[in-house]
Amino acid sequence: xxxxxxxxxxxxxxxxxxxxxxxxxxxxxxxxxxxxxxxxxxxxxxxxxxxxxxxxxxxxxxxxxxxxxxxxxxxxxxxxxxxxxxxxxxxxxxxxxxxxxxxxxxxxxxxxxxxxxxxxxxxxxxxxxxxxxxxxxxxxxxxxx
Length: 145
Description:
The protein is of the alpha+beta class. The chain contains five helices and four strands; from the N terminus they run βββαβαααα. Strands 3-2-1-4 form a four-stranded antiparallel sheet, with helices on one face. The longest helix is centred in the first third of the chain and has 21 residues. The two termini are 32 Å apart. The model has no long low-confidence stretch (mean pLDDT 91).
């Protein structure tokens, strides 16, 4: 799961703004340093949204020249489960009952500091009519010619 940042030059600095995430932006002295800053700013913004009980928006901005910034898996799963719960029109309590877990377990899954087990995540996914998939992606490295 990723969001796309609009990148612009602001004087001597570079600015990354996330149109899908109002108020989420960061800047750096170089374009290379900007990626690292964006990888820090976006999760911080999403965590804040979750901590105050707000649902982060779905990414829709997709500029070809934008900077693609992945959301860490620990946050991505929380956001996706929250979107699925909202789409299903379920409260935490109703989802908990369907999944056979406590309402507190659902609240912990949706909170950025929670640490749910794979078993709990799978129960909740099934209760939402979804399937939990875990994939380990190893980036390809470029070989020198």
